[in-house]
Amino acid sequence: TIAMNTNIEEKMLTTLKKYFGYTSFRPLQKEIIEMVLQGRDALVVMATGSGKSLCYQIPPLVTGKTAVVVSPLLSLMQDQVMSLKQRGIKAEYLGSTQRDSTVYSNAESGRFDILYITPERACTLSRGFWSNLLQTGICLLAVDEAHCISEWGHDFRKEYKQLDSLRGLLDIPFIGLTATATEKVRRDIISSLKMKDPFISKGSFDRANLFYGVKCFGRSLPLMDELVEEISKYLTSAGSIIIYCTTVKDTKQELFELVKAWNEENFDIDFVLQGLSFRCFESPSERSFKLCGGGGGTNTLPPSGHSNGVKLTVVLFQIYMSLQDKGIKAGIYHGQMSGKDREESHRSFIRDEVHVMVATVAFGMGIDKPNIRCVIHYGCPKSLESYYQESGRCGRDGLASICWLYYTRSDFAKADFFCGESQGIQREAIIESLMAAQKYCLLTSCRRKFLLEYFGEKSASSDCGNCDNCNNIKKERDMSREVYLLMSCIGSCGGRWGLNMPIDVLRGSRSKKVIENQYDKLPLHGLGKYFSSDCWKALADQLISKGYLKETMKDKYRTVSVSPKGVKFLSSVSGDHLPPLVLQVTDEMPD
Ligand code: ADP
Ligand code: ZN
Questions:
Q1: What are the tens digits of pLDDT across the range 424-448?
Q2: Which of 236, 480, 538, 559 could form a disulfide with 578 if both were Cys (CB 3.0 to 4.6 A apart)?
Q3: Lowest mean per-residue pLDDT among 174-188, 280-294, 354-368, 371-385
């Protein structure tokens, strides 16, 4: 068997050189491919850019049998197929609606090395198709972006769930691949795909060349000018920037008015949305609108005459316009743009014709640009999984790159927005994910360590030295007095409010709500006037992060209460003596 193994190893290596031009496998790749060639199921959890695709692309070339790859995005499949074809590999894809009978029959008779397929299509193909392919030769079934199978994942897709039906038809290795999976999701993938004793390969998630930092903005996100100034700093070196907007301004009413006007007038009209002018027009096939002055692509209007389904991220356009005004070449990318405009926008970014891409998270999968220097999140992301993936798009070339996250506290109240129609376990999962992202924002310790631990990686005991908290320049001082005031006040108010009530009480408010609850009679009332409301919130964030306070989500509302750790602190206070508690001082806090 030793002779045979060397034989296979050699064959793997010649295949790698011949088709891909690389001289060696990365350590995990080799192991996984060997396992799969031996007929074993595999779960591959490796960071984006670590080379997962080769794990399913090499076996078909070594065995001469087809590899079937389930992939969620048509555009991604098209890219992959094109680049494989350029390497002389026989690759094709079968979409959900595509009725290409040539591809179908060629696929069935095993003409392809690699066949990409959408999950919908994979589940609806006939038994006959699979049994024909089994006869001509199929070496594996790969499920890319396998976390989509789990309701606990950050991107659940119900079509993925039905893939288990294929297991009964195909006695071949199944490979699940994903860039992000927590323990729960990993278990879900294994059981959903009915994997038998899978080989689990987990790469490190550490991206040492990425700097992680978070900036909090008291009431609202920074003005566009500030953002643009920040961006200019990173534009000095060659490379590009992505700004992800997760913040959405509610434009439903305005869009409703627009569609109404449109229906009444039925000809070209202009309209203003949050200070930006757009022009509507009608082409033979559809109704659209465009930003006046060009750029930003064509956005479709629903034909049915109501505004449901139109969600326009105005923030995106605002940032885009501010950049243009400053002479920075920017592109825009979001889900409501026409396919053609999206493609064009993507292309100009890849070709370095624009330096900054202002985008929603729709801009993402399949971006393999090496020289992205900075990814800015404008608003808190919906989960750490998506944050890790989106921010991880910078620094592919291994050079130092920067991931900034901007948030305001109100971002954390967006659970409803993210939940949409989701119910039950999915709703729970969404809220849990958002809570984790919030925790990351509020963190006062090493961010990398936190991220790695979140993904189940025991990181080195030392801090990374490459995140804002590690390189901290932030001031610190003993804040036990303020901590005492805030926690006592939260306790006195019964722990059934959000942060605003106890802070109002400390600041001596005589609002109707304060009086009704007789909180103006508390001895603490008015003792915290010297701190602004934002200062108190910044303090509370640190106490939540350190576990002295506990924030709970009830229906739509968040309540804050003192945790057992906080109670312990309070009970150790005797007379004038306060146990010291050193916390960060924000710029606005008085000494
Ligand atoms: P993933 O799917 O994990 O995001 P890819 O499969 O797209 O990663 O690979 C990322 C990049 O690494 C690609 O440009 C790929 O060509 C390159 N790559 C993969 N394996 C190797 C290797 N053994 N040697 C050199 N480069 C590799
Ligand atoms: Zn760190």
A1: 777 888 888 888 999 999 888 899 9
A2: 480
A3: 280-294
Residue that the structure tokens 């595999």 belong to: 42
Residue 350: pLDDT band by 50, 70, 90 thresholds? confident
Cβ of residue 15 lying under 6 Å from some atom of ligand 1: no
Tens of pLDDT, residues 110-124:
899 999 999 988 988
Check if 557 has its Cβ closer than 6 Å to any atom of ligand 1: no
Is there a contact between 173 and 166 (Cβ–Cβ < 8 Å)? Answer: no
| 212 CA → ligand 2 middle, Å | 8
Token readout for 546 is 């350190």
Taking the centre of ligand 1 as the mean of its atom positions, its distance from the CA of residue 51, in whole angstroms, is 3
Atom 6 of ligand 1, residue of closest alpha carbon: 51
If pLDDT is split at 50, 70 and 90, which confidence band does 494 have?
confident
The band of 304, judged by pLDDT with boundaries at 50, 70 and 90, is very low
Dihedral sign, CA of 128, 133, 139, 144?
negative
57 CB near ligand 1 (under 6 Å): no
Question: Would the CB of 26 count as within 6 Å of ligand 1?
Answer: yes
| Residues measured by CB to lie within 5 Å of ligand 2, the ion | 446, 448, 463-464, 467, 470
The residue length of the chain stands at 591
pTM of the model: 0.73
Going by alpha carbons, the residue nearest to atom 19 of ligand 1 is 51
* Cβ neighbours for 482, distance < 8 A, ≥ 6 positions apart: 528, 531, 536, 539
Report the alpha-carbon distance of residue 278 to residue 455 in Å, rounded: 43
- Number of C-beta neighbours around residue 512 at 10 A: 8
Q: Each residue of 11-40: b (16+ CB within 10 Å) or e?
A: ebbebbeebbeeeebeebbbebbbbbbeeb
Q: Which of 12, 26, 44, 55 to mutate to test the pocket of ligand 1 (most atoms within 8 A of CB)?
A: 26
Give yes or no for a contact between 404 and 374, defined as CB atoms under 8 angstroms apart. Answer: yes
In whole angstroms, what is the distance from residue 466 CA to residue 474 CA?
15
Helices and strands in the chain, H and E counts: 23, 21
**Pairing assessment for the beta strands 401-407 and 210-216 based on DSSP bridges:** parallel
Cβ neighbours, 10 Å, residue 237: 11
